[in-house]
From TrEMBL, chain A:
Belongs to the EXO70 family. This is Exocyst subunit Exo70 family protein. It comes from the Eukaryota. SUPFAM superfamilies: Cullin repeat-like. One of its GO terms (cellular component) is exocyst.
Automatic annotation (TrEMBL), chain B:
It is found in: Membrane. It is a single-pass membrane protein. One of its GO terms (cellular component) is membrane. The keyword Zinc does not apply. The lineage of its organism: Eukaryota, Viridiplantae, Streptophyta, Embryophyta, Tracheophyta. Pfam families: ROH1-like. The keyword Disulfide bond does not apply. This is Protein BYPASS-related protein. Keywords: Membrane, Transmembrane, Transmembrane helix. Belongs to the ROH1 family.
Length: 644, 400
């Protein structure tokens, strides 16, 4: 092939003109808004042209012309069959030459098809030959299409693309054994903040090749090769999406894998899911649909949506399946917030998903996502009540006396994290029969009744706090020492109140609740002092009136001695107590001074002469200083070190 | 899609009666009767699937292993599953469920159900690859329907058919190559059409990106093996208790999953036929056993012939393969104008291929939806059983 060198004779020129004129006429006739005059001129012309173009078996005129055209186009098309390179890579001139050749052949095929000639003979031969060349060209164009789609695909790289660094992240540990304040702060919701940039459309294929792809689409569909075009297009775009998912770090997990995965790894997968789903839906698939629209828009909505769903379907199933796997996992409190992240991102994206898959063919995907959202919601509710059960039923294994119990810490941090998910939790916890929650009367009358304190989350939060308090009461009973019990409750309730007061939780609990709880721990403070000091203080009492037995009467010196001994005993135990909060510690020290040192001071004031200075081991000021050692958490002894 | 013909009366009857029965003896009698009904229904349903075939070879609307037949199989599964739950859970005291042997067999059942989910997922993607075949076949049909048929269209048909053969796992050139199955999963590969230049091989052959179905090392055969490995029929007193329906349902599940994987393209299925046996000598399992034998025979036949690299027993795929092969030969040697006889034959085959495509067009989407329905049903049932176990006060539900 490839006899490109052909000469154009006068005769051929004539026929070229005639052919061109006929094309023009056909085009004009197709035009609807023609005046009658115009029409007449056209039909006159028409009557002239056929005479010129009537063709015989002799092969003259137009057939010769067509054959020449076929040969010419064939030359161009076949040249690329033996050529190593790709057409569009070789430049636009080459590409348009190729496309024009294909179009010429297509025209000839149409023209021959419309000729009133008997079947067989030269026209048929030409037609078959044209079809053959056309077929070769179609195959070539398909390859070119795929090549262009692969060569010129672009990845969307969000600024926060380096998500994979999270894999090394320390995943917070909510297990209350090691819960520290800081640990829980990091539970703050996964980065759900949608920046405006993620709303944008991006070019998934370099914009400069769009017109090339479109012209291939046009030419292929003109030869009824749209099936081939779509197949190639879908295949290439689907692969691009698959690759992109790999770039995003998505992993193909089986359900078995996901169920067996330890929580730390799963939590990381969840974060990835939340992050990737947003990018895929908001940016990638929106852009993909836009690309499909640009290229296939003219093929009609049905093939457009089918194509898009074929590209996106498998990826959507990947996200759906992971969601399902999480939703069917064990409902553990520690999973609550990560699943809430999933719920929130999905709720947020649902509208976009509905828009992306608005067509009938996508209804399956839409429904699946809606159902997944419902299941994640159920999971959240389940994990929430699991948390409640955990607070209610957690049984202490051993007595705990010092400071704030890690369990309180854990539970309060957990409750505090709810505020970050307020709207979602309000929505999900709304259903009262779900938890058998009866709106407590205190809520009804709620004085400050802001929208916060009456919302479902607030009701649940208060309920959780009271369950926690009850749990703490139970825990305190493990302590044999009554004063330790009070210290324990005081510390923990104070911690709860402080946590609530200093955070957004304040709005949920309301000032009245806070006041009440302050009263509670103050009550424990009073009880604590009574329980700790009553026996020591009774030693200072003027017992003469009470105790008539002269043998029981002790002298002031004895009393002082006994009291000091008792004080030293209490000193040893109370320095061992821990009150971590400095304010609370100070308050307790002041109350202790007021109650105890005051009594001692007045006792000494009345009796110092009788006792004698050298028998007074500590004066009141000494003792007041010693009280400042209390509640530090490390037990000290006065007997060995402070002897006079 | 009314996939499930619920036997409402059956479910209702069980729950109502169970609530009425109080005494232990009565309860047990009731249990036996429920179990009997359950077994009988299973037997009937599977016999139904069996008779569909014997009644006809091709005239039936649901030929053996056709898409329609597989859909019916899934219907049967959904029905059995619903009845199973009725027998196991409805109106039952949760504490019964936490006692031996149920405390052992139920977690095993749940474990199996998670494995079944992975199979559903693999099969979902398998249907996608069937659809790829459909697309290629449609192109071939479009080309072969052209009149007059020229060499150009023959070339087009040949290209599509070569792609189809590859997608079906039949590679003329390097048959027996273990790569061919893998290739069938990717986008399909350009067959040897036209002058093969280097540029062409770069073309379609490049679609090799991972397919998001199942992980690369996942094996359908191993999955079935692990699902059935711990399946032991309850003995002695257990054989009349609740362990029996659990066992029966497990067999039904494994069988249905096995049949799905035999019919629909799935990753790594070598030796699938021998990995699972339906128990013999059990009345309710007779029909299932016959089905198992029939499918197993088909499988072995194909495995022997295709050295393990074929795609599936789905009737439509088989037909596509057969007709495709023949049309491929036709297109390959076609020279205009062609022999009239040969043309006629090819036209008839193209019509058959078109008919197969039509069935796929009609059936594949609903089939996929139904597989997903089965998937969701399994998820839901798993949750329900876990809830009951939870109520029964079992401290820790199995994590799997």
């Amino acid at each position: 092939m490839g006899d490109c060198g052909f000469t154009i004779t006068n005769h051929e020129v004539q026929h070229h003109i005639a052919a061109a004129a006929q094309h023009i006429l056909m085009a004009l006739k197709a035009c609807r808004n023609l005046t009658d005059d115009n029409r007449k001129v056209l039909s006159d012309l028409n009557s002239y042209l056929p005479n010129e173009m009537i063709l015989g078996e002799s092969g003259g005129g137009m057939l010769m012309d067509m054959e020449e055209q076929i040969r010419h186009s064939e030359g161009i098309i076949m040249r690329w069959e033996s050529h190593e390179g790709m057409i569009w890579d070789s430049g636009l001139a080459q590409a348009s030459e190729y496309l024009n050749s294909v179009r010429e052949i297509q025209k000839i095929v149409v023209a021959i098809g419309g000729l009133p000639v008997p079947s067989g003979g030269k026209p048929r031969e030409l037609c078959l030959r044209a079809h053959c060349i056309l077929q070769i060209a179609m195959s070539k164009l398909e390859e070119e299409l795929i090549h262009i789609l692969i060569q010129h695909k672009q990845c969307y790289e969000p600024e926060y693309m380096s998500f994979r660094s999270c894999v090394e992240d320390v995943v917070y540990d909510e297990s209350f054994v090691s819960a520290e304040d800081e640990a829980m702060e990091s539970v703050s919701r996964g980065d759900n903040s949608g920046s405006s940039s993620e709303q944008c459309l991006v070019d998934l294929v370099r914009p400069e090749v769009i017109s090339a792809i479109k012209s291939i689409a046009d030419v292929m569909s003109a030869s009824k090769h749209d099936k081939e075009f779509c197949r190639a297009f879908v295949g290439a775009r689907k692969d691009a999406l698959d690759e992109y998912l790999v770039i995003l770090g998505m992993e193909q997990l089986t359900f078995e894998d996901a169920m067996k995965m330890d929580w730390k790894a799963l939590s990381c997968e969840i974060k990835k899911w939340v992050w990737a789903l947003r990018i895929i839906i908001r940016v990638y698939l929106r852009s993909e649909k836009w690309l499909c629209n640009q290229i296939l828009g003219e093929l009609g909505p049905v093939s457009l949506s089918c194509t898009f769903i074929e590209i996106a379907g498998a990826a959507m199933l990947l996200f759906l399946n992971f969601g399902e796997a999480v939703a069917m996992g064990p409902r553990q409190p520690e999973r609550l917030f990560r699943v809430l992240d999933m719920y929130e991102v999905l709720a947020d994206l649902l509208f976009d998903i509905d828009t992306l898959f608005i067509e009938d063919a996508g209804s399956f995907i839409r429904t699946e996502f809606h159902e997944l959202l419902a299941r994640l919601g159920n999971y959240v509710k389940g994990a929430f009540s699991e948390f409640r059960n955990c607070i209610a039923s957690d049984q202490p294994r051993k007595a705990f006396s010092s400071g704030v119990h890690p369990f309180t810490n854990y539970a309060m941090n957990y409750i505090k994290t709810f505020t970050a998910y307020r709207e979602t939790l309000d929505l999900l916890l709304r259903n009262p029969e779900e938890d058998g929650m009866d709106p407590s009367p205190e809520t009804e009358k709620g004085a400050e009744d802001s929208s916060y304190s009456s919302c479902p989350l607030a009701r649940h939060a208060r309920l959780l706090a009271s369950i926690l308090e009850a749990n703490l009461e139970n825990r305190s009973k493990l302590l044999k020492d009554e004063s330790l019990q009070h210290i324990f409750l005081m510390n923990n309730i104070h911690y709860m109140v402080k946590k609530i007061k200093d955070s957004d939780l304040r709005q949920y609990f309301g000032d009245e609740w806070i006041r009440k709880q302050i009263g509670t721990f103050q009550h424990h403070a009073t009880d604590y002092i009574r329980a700790t000091w009553s026996s020591a203080l009774s030693l200072l009492n003027d017992s003469r009136r009470l105790d008539l037995n002269p043998f029981n009467r002790s002298t002031p010196r004895d009393k002082c001695k006994n009291f000091v001994a008792a004080f030293e005993e209490v000193y040893k135990s109370q320095t061992g107590c821990l009150v971590p909060d400095p304010e609370l510690r100070e308050d307790l020290q002041i109350s202790t001074s007021q109650k105890v040192i005051q009594a001692y001071r007045s006792f000494l004031g009345k009796n110092s002469a009788q006792i004698g200075d050298k028998y007074i081991k500590y004066n009141a000021d000494d003792m007041e200083k010693l009280v400042l050692d209390f509640f530090s958490g490390s037990s000290r002894s006065l007997r060995s070190s402070r002897r006079r | 899609m009314p996939a499930t013909e619920y036997q409402g009366s059956f479910l209702g009857r069980i729950s109502i009666r169970r609530n009425q029965v109080v005494s232990m003896d009565g309860n047990h009698e009731q249990e036996l009767e429920d179990l009997e009904i359950f077994q009988k229904n299973i037997s009937d349903r599977f016999s139904d699937l069996l008779s569909d075939d014997s009644s006809s070879s091709s005239s039936s609307s649901e030929p053996f292993l056709s898409i329609a037949w597989v859909r019916k199989l899934l219907d049967v599964y959904l029905c059995c599953e619903a009845e199973f739950k009725a027998v196991l859970i409805m109106g039952r005291d949760p504490s019964l469920i936490s006692k031996p042997p149920l405390d052992r067999v139920l977690p095993e059942l749940l474990d199996r159900s998670v494995k079944a989910l992975d199979i559903c997922n693999a099969v979902m993607h398998g249907v996608d690859s069937v659809r790829q075949c459909q697309k290629l076949a449609e192109i071939a049909v479009a080309a072969l329907e052209q009149r007059p048929l020229g060499e150009g269209q023959a070339r087009r048909a040949k290209k599509a058919l070569a792609g189809l053969m590859t997608a079906l796992g039949i590679d003329d050139k390097d048959s027996g190559s273990h790569k061919s199955t893998e290739r069938a999963w990717s986008f399909g590969r350009r067959g040897g059409c036209g002058g093969g230049s280097a540029a062409k091989d770069r073309g379609l052959g490049q679609f090799r990106a991972p397919s998001w179905g199942v992980p690369k090392n996942w094996s359908a055969a191993k999955q079935i093996q692990s699902m059935s490995s711990n399946l032991v029929a309850p003995r002695g007193a257990d054989s009349t208790g609740l362990a029996m329906p659990v066992y029966i349902m497990s067999i039904v599940t494994v069988f249905v999953m096995w049949a799905l994987m035999a019919a629909i393209p799935c990753q790594e299925r070598s030796g699938l036929a021998s990995h699972f046996q339906v128990p013999r000598q059990l009345g309710w399992a007779q029909a299932m056993m016959s089905l198992h034998e029939k499918i197993g025979e088909e499988w072995k036949k194909k495995e022997k012939k295709g050295s393990g690299s074929f795609v599936g027993l789905l009737e439509e795929m088989q037909r596509m393969e057969k007709v495709g092969h023949s049309l491929m030969d036709f297109a390959d040697g076609f020279q205009y104008p062609g022999e009239a006889e040969r043309l006629e034959e090819a036209a008839a085959q193209a019509a058959e291929l078109a008919e197969t495509c039509r069935r796929m067009e009609e059936g594949l989407v609903p089939l996929q939806q139904q597989i997903r329905e089965v998937f969701h049903r399994i998820v839901r049932s798993r949750t329900e059983v876990l809830d009951v176990l939870d109520q029964a006060g079992k401290p820790s539900a199995p994590s799997v």
